Amino acid sequence: MSQSLRAAYKRLVKQGRIAPDPAQARAVEAFGRLEGELGKLKDPALPFFGRPKPPRGLYLWGPPGRGKSMLMDLFFDGAGVARKQRYHFHVFMAEVHALVGRWRDGSQAERKRVFGTHKGDDPIPPVAKLIADKARLLCFDELQVTDIADAMILGRLFEALFALGVTLVATSNRPPDDLYKDGINRQLFTPFIDMIKQRCVVCELGGPRDFRLDRLKGARVWFSPIDSQTTAAFDALWKDMTSVTREIGAHIDVLGRKLDFPRAAGGMLRATFRELCVEPLGPQDYLAIAERFPTVFLERVPRLGPDKRNEARRLVTLIDALYEAGTKLVVLAEAEPDDLYPKGDGSFEFERTASRLQEMRSADYVERVRS
User: Fold this and answer.
1) pLDDT tens column, 6-41
2) Which of 12, 52, 75, 249 is the most exposed place for a label (fewest CB within 10 A)?
3) In a domain, 36, yes or no
4) Distance between CA atoms of 150 and 138, rounded to whole angstroms?
5) CA torsion, points 130, 135, 137, 141, in degrees to nearest 10?
6) Cα–Cα distances in Å, from 208 out to 67, 214, 364, 367?
7) How many whole angstroms separate alpha carbon 281 and alpha carbon 270?
8) Dihedral, 129, 135, 140, 143 alpha carbons, nearest 10
9) pLDDT at 315
10) How far, CA to CA in Å, does 315 sit from each of 47, 137, 274, 330?
11) Dist CA 353 CA 175 (whole Å)
């Protein structure tokens, strides 16, 4: 039987896996209110008219590293709702756009097979009904809106979802009024903001403390060479950093392209050198990664040379983006920074990156609070 959120949180504090924190305690109470109200609902399989009005959801916002994803995980695990779904927000929106495409491109027979019987050609009602049939509780991690296609669809989609009795829980780095700030045609998006404030209790998880930073202080963040011992230590640090949250992956939109990272947990990314530097990524991709993830675990970095000139150039660009953003970096590499590109054409140009990598492993850099 799953534990209540309050009980699970108290257990983590008692075990010393997290430290007591007043701001988190207030968020726990907000989640506990919702947990209790959801528990009073009848079986969600019953027709909607046979159930009480769904409770107001929760919109939890605050800076990275405050424990938003951890609290979301604890709430979701203990929520006594038969049909519930937890998504990274961008993954959810990618699925929504795919469903809209299936409706628009499908034949009448295909529409009926996937969505059931619906009148008219508007894809929003059948897509919303399909989502609501699968989940009466929708939990989103890292809700942020930067894509105009997402912005234009959200208001109508959630108007339909709320009408179908769906309860929304979301975490975000921004307050509702700052979503899609300065975006194109933002006036068409503001009804979604109004709905969030009407349908959700807005709770700020404030304060400057970054719990990931607490775990990294004093920890080894550069592991070399690559052997069983350093790999085990790298894995152990990742496990410790993600011990109170879970890997659900992440999805980033960059200039109309989709970047998918299967090993992401909240504001932390774990990726291989091949994924970030062998794949043909560019400066805009690295800037988006640096903005999205306050902490990056980069593994399997090889020794570099003229034969890997393109990969080395991408690593230089990646490190520049992470450094300028104040991103915390943990690396598993074949060599120390100064020995990653030891000789040959291009080694001189790599010296500045090696110097930055040395600084990024220092205690002063690790303890620097990212704005």
Assistant:
1) 888 888 888 877 778 888 999 999 999 999 888 877
2) 52
3) yes
4) 17
5) -80
6) 12, 12, 17, 12
7) 16
8) 10
9) 96
10) 55, 41, 10, 14
11) 36
Domain stop point among 160, 186, 204: 204
CATH, residue 96: 3.40.50.300
Q: Let me know whether 282 and 263 are in one domain.
A: yes
Copy the structure tokens of residue 67.
Answer: 């424990």
Instruction: Give the type of residue at 331.
Output: V
Claim to verify: residue 45 and residue 159 sit in the same structural domain: yes
Burial of 32 (0-12, 13-18, 19+ CB in 10 A): middle
Max Cα separation, the chain? 74
**Residues 281-313: pLDDT tens digits?**
999 999 999 988 889 999 999 999 999 999 999
Nearest to 212 by CA among 269, 252, 288: 269
Cα separation, 331 vs 113, in Å, equals 48
- Whether residues 189 and 217 share a domain: the answer is no
Q: How many CB atoms lie within 10 A of CB 98?
A: 10
Q: Grade residue 80 by pLDDT with cuts at 50, 70 and 90.
A: confident
Q: Are residues 126 and 219 in the same domain?
A: no
Residue 192 belongs to what domain range? 5-204
Task: Please tell me what DSSP assigns to residue 276.
Answer: I
Q: Is 140 helix (H, G, I), strand (E, B) or coil?
A: strand
276 shares a domain with 159: no
The residue behind tokens 């043909």 is 280
- Can you list the positions of beta strands (E) in the chain? 57-61, 84-88, 137-141, 167-172, 200-204, 222-223, 250-254, 257-261, 264-265, 268-272, 295-301, 328-333
Question: Residue 226 maps to which CATH number?
Answer: 3.40.50
**The two three-digit tokens of residue 47, written as one number:** 């027709």
Question: Are 230 and 145 within one domain?
Answer: no
For residue 322, tell me if it sits in a domain.
yes
Q: pTM for the full model?
A: 0.70
Residue 112: which region, alpha, beta or left (left: phi > 0; alpha: psi -120 to 50)?
A: alpha
In this structure, the answer to whether residues 190 and 237 fall within a common structural domain is no
22 and 64 share one domain: yes
